[in-house]
Amino acid sequence: MKEHNDIQRTVEDILRDGPHKRPYGVPSDYMSSLSRRLESIPQSVPAPRRFSIWERILPYVSVAAAFLVMVTVGGTILRKTAVSTPSQDEIMEFAYIERANILFMEEEAEDLSFEDIEEYLVSSGISSEHLTYTAQNYEQ
Question: Could you read off the pLDDT of 21-50 as tens digits, one per residue?
Fold first, then answer.
């Protein structure tokens, strides 16, 4: 509160003292030379610069080039990392081989007995739980 009173007193002292010296001023011949200085400013505005055709299309060419680079790099990366898919002929060949294997297994399965299956499973190292499960499902 004391600071507020000190500031208030200082402002009142300044206002009471009357006119003060201005911290800035205008040169004495400023107004008389103003009209001469204003006349020296050119009245015409210079014509706008004409751009060549190349300068006008350069931004579009730059964007097109950047797009082309991105597509080329992206396509190259995709081709290098893509997994090749088999052709239609390879798929059909695989299907025929699988079908032949299934038919062959069906013919052999008719000749198998439970003992043959059990012997195969035991020799393959299957656990007794799996063997029991297989035996129960085979009998059904």
Answer: 666 777 788 888 888 888 888 777 778 888
